[in-house]
Specification:
Elements: H1 30-41, H2 44-63, H3 71-80, H4 82-91, H5 100-129, E1 144-150, H6 154-167, E2 171-175, E3 181-188, H7 190-216, E4 218-225, E5 229-231, E6 239-242, E7 255-265, E8 275-285, E9 293-298, E10 303-305, E11 308-324, E12 330-335, E13 339-340, E14 347-353, E15 359-367, E16 370-373, E17 377-380, E18 389-397, E19 417-425, E20 430-432, E21 439-455, H8 459-478, E22 482-490, E23 496-504, H9 511-536
Antiparallel strand pairs: 1-23, 2-3, 3-22, 4-6, 4-21, 5-7, 7-8, 8-9, 10-11, 11-12, 11-21, 13-14, 14-15, 15-18, 16-17, 18-19, 20-21, 22-23
Helix pairs in contact: 2-5, 3-4, 5-7, 7-8
Length: 537
């Protein structure tokens, strides 16, 4: 038996080329390559891939310290793990959002969305102006089909069907009865695609707004203690993250003094200790030489000055400490910011005194409502200052301030220091340091508040884009696209045969009910027509 592939009787002449077949874009010209690259970039699959890559690229920025917001932690990371730190630094992982590769992904995503959405919008605009498609040849094959006979005239049926659909806000196109047949085509639900495009255009606008804000805006953080002031200059910020297009001269020259910070806590109940209200009372000076104005800054009620918003984001305690050397000379007298570690504001802080010989450092806990557990140690039982105390440990030696490395004001490098003792102090109490090195006095405490100072020129546009995206998404989910056709023909026994059919692109629609209502309306017409003809006779 001869295999079919080798049987001469099964061979046929073919016009297919016998040479190698080109596959893919390798045979394209430079123009063809450009068109292929543009089609690939502007496809929805590429846009989704770029969006996924952008999300992945943002992960190191939330895990690793960033130079723009915390340069000290970056230096500590490089010092503690030099090999890995240098690798991360070369990759730009300590300044992710300013790296060329992150900007490239962001820019490609914007171009991809624009190239995908804008042509679709033009096509949709043309489709909105186009006539609904004519009736298919065989309406009976459609999912929803109805057929009835009536004595009403064919053209009158078409006119009444078109009028009924017009009143239901369908797009209608009618073909007049030509003696044999006539039809009405109606379409509804174009706002579904409109909503889909509005959503994607709004998403494009949101990406642009975020980019504008990141490029031209800035964000900074600062801690201000009661009785101290802040001026809106770059050197006054504890951390400052400007955009690439930010000009330092655009900072408005305002300043404010934190006069008083007040906070109320819930006492008792399941949420005991929860803050119910905290307010920063400040004296604002809009420009140098201008009179001061009393202002209040609360949660979600920022201070606004020339497009810059000052948000209240945190607060804590600052113990007032006085340190004297063995001659009674005051070498330190100030309130020190202690950072809260838990909900009851058990706070930690550091005091560095380089003017003594040897240098002196203090580490401590400030406890608003102090308690001591044999196992847990000192802690606070309530965030309000009901029983304030500070627990200090003293260190003497080299603070490491002369080696050229930046240090955090909240950490004490005890590598070249020795501990001198630990002491609990209440307001007004003093501690005589060992070896007659001086005294430490807790004079009391004050409060501090942390503020976020930000200018985002694209935030209003971003809000509008976000609201528009929600509206567009709602339309695309709620509106159903559907079509209805009505065809009339004359039968041999003088009646009019009416065929009506409906088609939808989704299952959950009311197309069957709408079709039944239309057919029922057309079926009820012959009765009125017959009665009117009898009255005419």
């Amino acid at each position: 038996m001869i295999p079919p592939a080798l049987d001469p009787s099964t061979q046929r002449m073919s016009t297919a080329p016998t040479g190698p077949v080109e596959t893919g874009p390798s045979h394209l010209s430079a123009w063809g390559w450009g068109r292929w690259a543009w089609r690939t970039l502007t496809s929805m699959r590429t846009a989704l891939l770029l969006l996924f890559l952008l999300a992945i690229a943002s992960v190191p920025g939330s895990i690793l310290p960033q130079r723009g917001s915390n340069p000290i932690r970056v230096n500590d990371y490089l010092a503690n793990d030099p090999a890995k730190g240098r690798l991360f630094d070369r990759l730009g992982l300590f300044d992710v959002f300013a790296t060329p590769w992150f900007a490239a992904i962001y820019l490609l995503l914007f171009i991809s969305l624009a190239g995908c959405v804008l042509p679709r919008s033009l096509q949709h605009a043309r489709a909105m102006r186009a006539r609904p498609p004519g009736a298919p040849r065989n309406l009976a094959r459609l999912p929803e089909h109805r057929a009835v006979e009536t004595r009403y005239g064919p053209q009158q049926v078409l006119d009444l069907a078109a009028g009924r659909l017009h009143r239901g806000r369908w797009r209608v196109d009618a073909v007049a009865f030509d003696g044999t047949t006539g039809s009405v085509a109606a379409e509804k639900g174009y706002t579904r695609e409109t909503g889909n495009l509005v959503f994607h255009i709004a998403l494009l606008g949101l990406v642009a707004a975020i980019g504008i804000g990141s490029f031209a805006g800035f964000r900074g953080y600062v801690i201000v203690r009661e009785g101290t002031s802040f001026a809106d200059t770059r050197t006054q910020f504890d951390s400052f993250t400007p955009g690439k297009g930010f000009a330092e001269s655009s900072l408005p020259p305002f300043s404010f003094t934190l006069d008083k910070f007040s906070v109320d806590y819930q006492r008792g109940g399941q949420q005991s200790g929860a803050p119910r209200q905290f307010t920063a009372g400040v004296s604002l000076t809009v420009s140098p030489g201008a009179p001061s104005q009393s202002q209040r800054i609360e949660v979600n009620e920022p201070l606004q000055v020339e497009g810059v918003k000052v948000f209240l984001v945190g607060y804590g305690y600052a113990p007032n400490i006085t340190v004297k050397d063995n001659k009674g000379t005051v070498v330190f007298h100030d309130s020190v910011t202690f950072l809260p570690q838990d909900g009851n504001f058990t706070s930690t802080g550091v005091i560095k005194i380089p003017d003594t010989i040897p240098q002196l450092g203090l580490q401590g806990f400030f406890l608003p409502t102090a308690a001591v557990d044999p196992i847990r140690g000192p802690f606070s039982t309530f965030p309000a200052p009901d029983n304030p105390a500070v627990f200090l440990s003293a260190w003497s030696g080299d603070l490491g301030l002369d080696n050229g490395r930046a240090q955090s004001v909240y950490k004490l490098d005890t590598t070249n220091m020795s501990r001198q003792g630990i002491k609990e102090l209440r307001p007004g109490q003093s501690w005589s340091l060992p070896s007659s090195r001086g005294t430490v006095t807790l004079d009391g405490y004050s409060r501090w508040a942390s503020f976020s100072v930000a200018h985002d020129p694209g935030k209003e546009f971003a809000l509008i884009a976000a609201i528009t995206a929600i509206v567009g998404l709602t339309l695309s989910l709620m509106v159903r696209r559907r079509r209805i056709w009505v065809r009339v023909t004359s039968s041999d026994h003088g009646q009019t045969l009416v065929e009506a059919a409906g088609l939808t692109r989704s299952e959950h629609t009311t197309i069957a009910e709408e079709l039944d209502e239309l057919v029922s309306h057309l079926q009820s017409l012959p009765v009125a027509s017959t009665q009117s003809r009898e009255r005419e006779k």
